[in-house]
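[Discussion] Sanity-checking designs against the backbone

I'm trying to build intuition for which residues belong where. Below is a structure token string of 177 positions. I'd appreciate it if someone posts a full sequence so I can compare it with mine line by line.
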């Protein structure tokens, strides 16, 4: 397994919608290796999610896992999940604003509104169908990664860019600016 290079904001791969993964390709060794490398890369950089486009692979696949994470302390645990060709649908209009960051936009955070509850359909790494409801931080991470697969970054969702801050300043001055 390898740690992959993460594309940074400005790289065109982050702004292009990714094509779906053909179902027949999911079982291929190179696809499975990509998924393993994405998990290793996400963990290496203390991420809670990583989309294939972030590692220069234009494919609709994302990995996510939330455990005790120094970048997002106190968030609920989410087991390792692999989402291939995910489709999300909000369950209601209720949103919440919270701080988000991105491995492709290092050291920066901003307040981003996201839907609180989602229905998620996707395939797992074995090509089996997934259909579940995600809430709270879990729903936020999924929306963030699906945005990547559609060619968007969290900055595009921010209604007020004045909340952008470096992590060091956020730690120094707090979230109540």
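Best answer:
Here's mine. Compare freely.
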């Amino acid at each position: 397994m390898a740690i992959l290079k993460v594309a940074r904001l400005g790289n065109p791969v982050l702004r292009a919608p990714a094509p779906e993964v053909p179902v027949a390709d999911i079982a291929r060794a190179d696809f499975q290796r990509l998924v393993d490398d994405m998990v290793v890369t996400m963990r290496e950089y203390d991420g809670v999610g990583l989309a294939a486009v972030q590692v220069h692979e234009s494919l609709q696949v994302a990995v996510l896992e939330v455990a005790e994470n120094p970048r997002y302390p106190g968030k609920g645990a989410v087991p390792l999940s692999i989402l291939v060709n995910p489709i999300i649908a909000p369950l209601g209009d209720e949103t919440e604003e919270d701080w988000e960051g991105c491995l492709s936009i290092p050291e920066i955070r901003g307040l981003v509104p996201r839907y609180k509850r989602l229905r998620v359909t996707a395939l797992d790494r074995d090509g089996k169908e997934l259909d579940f409801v995600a809430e709270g931080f879990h729903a936020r991470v999924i929306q963030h990664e699906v945005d990547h697969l559609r060619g968007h970054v969290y900055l595009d969702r921010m209604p007020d860019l004045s909340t952008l801050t470096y992590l060091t300043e956020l730690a120094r001055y707090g979230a109540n600016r």
